[in-house]
Protein 1
Amino acid sequence: MSDSNIDSVLIENRKFEPSSEFASKARIQPADFAALHKKAEQDYTGFWAEQAHDLIDWQTLFNEILDDSNAPHFKWFADGKLNVSYNCLDRHLADKADKTAIIFEGEKGDIRKISYQQLTDEVSQFANALKAHGIEKGDRVVIYMPMTPEAVIAMQACARIGAIHSVVFGGFSAESLRDRINDAGAKMVITADGGTRGGKVVELKAATDKALDHDCPSIENVIVYQRTNHGANMQQGRDIWWHDAIAEQDTVCVPEWVESEHPLFLLYTSGSTGKPKGIQHSSAGYLLGAIATNLWVFDLQDDDVFWCTADVGWITGHTYVAYGPLAAGGTIVIYEGAPTVPDGGRFWKICQDHKVSIFYTAPTAIRALMKLGDELPNAYDLSSIRLLGTVGEPINPEAWMWYHKVIGKEKCPIVDTWWQTETGCNMIAPLPGVVATKPGSCTIALPGIDADVVDEDGNSITEPNKGGYLVIKKPFPAQLRTIWGDEQRYVDTYWPKFGGKYYLAGDSARKDADGYFWIMGRIDDVLNVSGHRLGTMEVESALVAHERVAEAAVVGYPHDVKGEAIFAYVVLRGVRPEGGIDEALTKELRNWVGEQIGPIAKPDQIRYADNLPKTRSGKIMRRLLRNIARGEEITSDTSTLENEDILLQLEGKA
Ligand code: PRX
């Protein structure tokens, strides 16, 4: 862990109690909260069993609760059977068939409302289409879709038949898509002709074709949803239009009852190496976490309209769009496009028009919209909003206060939710009717989650504000089960320390005198750009794949909107450009990385040097590169550098 991660620079003393107006109506009252915590402390597995019993509809009720005999490969509720799609859809039909499940708005303003009955029918019909194209329980299906209801329908349809989906964010490139398809061994891709974002067409089908063009042997079919209608090249025998695939299919599809541990989905995320890892989630444990946190943290109630702005390509879009709110019988909003079309008031207009009551977004979006001024949000009626949330990165107190004042009108609690792709659901977050909030802190762990900050030896750090490793000390139902196809990497990444007893989150954190958690950043080489995880190695691998690049090192530096931006140091094959500047090449390399990974991975800055700063053993001194990128004074001892004279070039002074 680097020193800069351990030092805490931010001490924030403001504290906001939930308003009595909010608290009086909240699902979880202080007495419930105390009871939940007490039960979880006294009878940990019994606590989760009770929740699983109450919140999930089982086809076969479980007897076993937690099997930790093969730790860290935990099993929860293993002898139970269920279906996640049944829990999200069918079970609501008795009393909510006509209730709106999804309010969809396209970037161009087209609106669709889908009831629970309609959604059940559409999911079932599409599930039958998948079966008709040979998809069976356990098969992997990659979903590469725009943010339309069909993305959720595709996910739910996979869940309905026990197929394992892996959603790939539509902003990822053909190369990234191909890697994920191959790693998962997927049989099918579900995509669209295109999506609309920022007024432009996102070429999803073209990228899919490129991905499948070579070295992608497992794919048998591609189902293409017609969204943009701008012309798609359909390969005969392989590609089928969505509307043709469902045309003859029945709207009834009996759910496939799967074991609790049956994988519901894989979701690829970045780690410390160049290869993204397929995080594998279970059916029952994941569903339980998703439902419980939608009820506890988002206080989701029958008349709420919940808008989580995340794309289904990220875990947030799984747990707080596609699964959790539906399993809890809620109404969700899905918006296809960019927040600034036609202007930066779009989010607020959507909140007004659809009477959004719970709004959940990322600090990067809040900062970007805050920069545009208060006039835009003030032009809309935001009185329907009663709860706000943030996720993905630490929120700076300035953005928190703006969110609180200008969007929340000082009456809405803000739930700052700490969690990860791997944890499946919120882990550390306030229960909004009970826990007072502090700008920049995700507050305290949820009932049944044993989070702590520990030192190198795994001892709890009791001194307030002293940084350490964020760990989860007991297994919990929604946690990842493994990394797809790489058990060893699972063990090595998440359980490498403390005798393999604690889940190592990969973040550093501190606890203040009230026991509130403050996340301080990653301890590994993972960047957080606009709330999205990217491995420095991934960007480096992409750069060195360019014919002109010999070596590359990538670090993050603070950015006032993105949170973190990417700084790349590049050693070229052949001569270094004059003065270290070559704008044309910089543009080419940025685009190249965009093509290799996706536009979010484009380096913000590229600096050319004859070499990278290496110790005599050949190790790149990343701390030094971080100092330079951040404009900080170089604190490390540069005398251990093999090539000290390289510093001037790295600093852009030669
Ligand atoms: O560093 C933490 C940061 O995002 C990482 C997880 O990224 P990902 O798996 O992409 O999931 C993002 C959405 C859950 C964490 O290791 N992070 C997430 N939420 C917060 C956060 N950092 C500070 N505060 C948060 N609320």
Protein 2
Amino acid sequence: MTQLRDLPVEEARARMLGAVSPGVPELILLDRHALGRVLAEPIAAVRDQPPFDASAMDGYAVPLEGVWTAGFQLIGESAAGRPYAGAAPRAGETVRVFTGASVPEGCAVVVQERASRESDHVRFEGAPPSIGAHVRARGGDFRRGEILLPAGVRLDAWRLALAASAGRGEALVFPQPRVAILSTGEEIVRAGAADPSDAQIFDSNGPALSTLIAQWGGRPVPLDAVRDSQAAILAALDGVAAELIVTVGGASVGDYDLVKPALAKLGLELLVETIRLRPGKPTWFGTLPNGQRVLGLPGNPASGLVAAELFLRPLLAAWQGVDPAFPLEHARLAEPLEATGPREHWMRARLVSQADGSVSAHTFPDQDSSLVSVFAAADALVRRPAGAPALASGEVVEMLRLKRL
Ligand code: AMP
Ligand code: MG
């Protein structure tokens, strides 16, 4: 039988990723609502950009042959959007051009600061222009048919600008997974609830997860928190429209850890039962017979959010057709660290960038998994491999930067 417990982080992640694949692409308008969506097709240019040889300056288009010093006869004008329609200027002829206007064939541009004009006669100071002077060649930005954005790229403002300049008004993108979030626990109440008793705890993971899911391209479906009751858990999840269900709390093996036993009644097949991870050991993952995937997160805020960074983020990436790998960055320890135990440890840290370009990581002295205040002050998670030796300050560690606004 496959081992489900105490899996190394990498293996747990690989098992989860093996259970998801991107959905059927949909066609959307490439307007601001496309922000964050992932291309399911490459974007190729529908034509050359610029589509004509364009002037980079206000000035005069002059043919490259002819006697430079004799002066030129003005035979027309080319403005942006209103190109010169006559025959290309011959020796001794010139066309007035403005920035962004089409430059007649065989011409270069002399800036207007070097020209003196009397009626339709123009003289220029200085040396004759060289080939291409002040001309942006047709196709100089990109060529028709050139692939500008590959599939799998997430759209941001600059990529949307590129697709627009390439002439694309719509594109196929991967669907955004819907992710239901269910906080569980007798003690959990929504922030803002009237007269909370001392026995109650405000739900901090629910809002954090909804926000992270939206930030990572998913569509959060927040559900009302439920009590520690199998019936309540099943009722809350009954018929919920989501590809992925994230449960919070009740993930361990205590008498009130009822999420897995409840879902077992629906036919939950576990792929991951526990992970060699600190914090976040009770994180689990499985599939339901209706095709829904379930990620079970521990209730302690730091455990849930570390597990979300390590597993939920890559899951959502893979669901949207994006490479789920997240390259780690490096930092120098500001303080020494003790040897790590048998579990891979992801420590909350504050980063300070140094004048020499390096980044130093201050790991918080109290790494207890319940501390929301520490997580809220952290910029990064420092990775300490299982069984890693003690480190002196100044040594280099791997870290995952947390996206802070
Ligand atoms: P559990 O994973 O259910 O054993 O919960 C572990 C700890 O996390 C307990 O102290 C809970 O009160 C707390 N906790 C569980 N769920 C949440 C939540 N959604 N928001 C904040 N704290 C929670
Ligand atoms: Mg609980």
